[in-house]
Design goal:
heterodimer, A: 331 residues, mainly alpha, two-stranded antiparallel sheet, 15 helices, B: 316 residues, alpha/beta, 6-stranded parallel beta sheet, 10 helices, 12 strands
Chain lengths: 331, 316
Amino acid sequence: MSDIAIRARRGLPSMSVLGPIIALVVLVFVGAMLNSNFLGTANITNVLARSAFIGIIAVGMTFVITAGGLDLSVGSMAAFIAGLMILVMNAALPTLGVGIPIVLLGMAVAVVAGIVAGMINGLLVTALGIEAFIVTLGTMGIYRSLVTWLADGGTLSLDFGLRTFYRPVYFEGILGISWPIIVFALVVIVGEMLMSRTRFGRHCAATGSNEHVAHYSNVDVNRTRLLTYVMLGLLVGVATIMYVPRLGSASASTGLLWELEAIAAVIIGGTVLKGGFGRVWGTVIGVLILSLIDNILNLTDLVSPYLNGAIQGVIIILAVILQREAKAKGG
Amino acid sequence: MKTRMVLAATTAIALAAPVMAQESETKVIGVSIPAATHGWAGGMNFHAQQSVERLEEAYPELDFVLSTASDPGTQVNDIEDMVATRNIDALVVLPFESDPLTPPVQSVADSGVWVTVVDRGLSVEGVEDLYVAGDNEGFGRVAGEYMVEQMPDGGNIVVLRGIPTTIDNMRVEGFEQAIEGSGIEIVGMEHGNWNRDDSFSVMQDFLQRHDQIDAVWASDDDMAVGVLAAIEASGRDDVQFVLGGAGMKEMVQRVMEGDEMIPADVTYPPAMIATAIEMTALGLVSDAPVSGVFTIGSVLITPENAEQYYYPDSPF
């Protein structure tokens, strides 16, 4: 296990722990100063609900990266699963009619497709021993083309009646908290427990830290890796279930660059890109930081919209610098 | 390099066989367009395929090579392959980007091949024999004029722009000129990147930021879809209408049905590729002169004329 992991265990508040939290607090403060609606329920709900897709995926990505892997295919995978789900639901409409069964069918399709897609990535990486970067770069292209092909170059749209029925899954919830936020929260809680309290979490860190040492310590390295990819695939499916009811459509531009946003959120949150140490709650902060920047820039005219990407870039680099400083000081 | 040459050679042999089998009069038209990665491009691919099929049937002496590229580099390769292996007589090209495509298309033109450029112009003037394009400045102007007409007393509007490009700049300039002095105020302007999801988020934030928004210029139908979803979810009733653009079939249908939120649309037809292919073919098979510039006007789609712009089979 790496020295960073050990220090984090001891609970010393280093810069790598405090950095992202401070950044988040500063952003919330700046947002509240700039616009009085920023802390309103509606705005908070909007931001959290739209962060949920990337957030759910990023939790899975935290495990993949911790175990020393990487997945570039998640954005395309989400688009493909969304397209598949819409096609299946539209096709089943004449037999099943609008109702709960057809929504459950759609959800099942998304979950199964996600698990299968994750399994394919995982097997190519573990059984065939191909570099994760290459495997997922390949599947990224495959899924993107497949969704373009399924949509015949246009947009796949859910039947209008069906969309109206399915819509509450994104826009409504319990006690004023919308479903995507609830699901995101559950995924985070389960993820955090898995990462910090279970043997699986420890195996992920060991695998990512040093494959050979892990192997000799009786960790099934390949099985651990495969499981992280399957879990990520499953979570991409879950994110898609939340995504489809929002606009009821999927096209070749769905989920564009989600993989990079998810990876950025994971790294901002303090997970080590080389593997060996992961932090699920940090990933949540990373996701919130990224979507708050967008939200704040849309709520003001302070900065030219051309520079949105630059500001996000600066924050990503700053977060990593802070963590490295901490590592150097801690020795 | 070596493999690529071998590949090119095998392709050449494979492709040359049927060409040689036909009569020597056969003329080949190469069509190179961006891949169907978003709604408008999908529509364009559809119309390109349709007109190629139609023309191949109508003119047995014409042969077509259609290729789609997902980046400028691939498009250059496509065009090089068409010249090297298919011996094309004419090239119809919708450049992915103007600058990188200019030198390769220029060398094709220099070799005596007829060149038709569509939509995005090249960076050097006078390369092409025929230029078929939409009217971007007019696209913005028609939308602006419609806004002024709908809101004679002025009002607050927000604008969603496309991906930062010269096309987007021209459209916004046309729009701003048209609403100048009308009392319509643009209270917010952000890039929705011609994307549904981005526009949904941007519109949600606009609704938080402004208490009164009278209308939205979404400047594109894909973006209008996201904007409508955000308005619907917010439960606000101050937004009177959303004006999109490009003529997506779902939007044209809503105009046709008299939807109050989508009272009109502005065309920027993906079918302009069909115009270009048809005119190029006409130039090869007949004596009709087709060189010059052909600008396709941006037209306001209203419930009265919507049927004319509705293509139910197109993916866009």
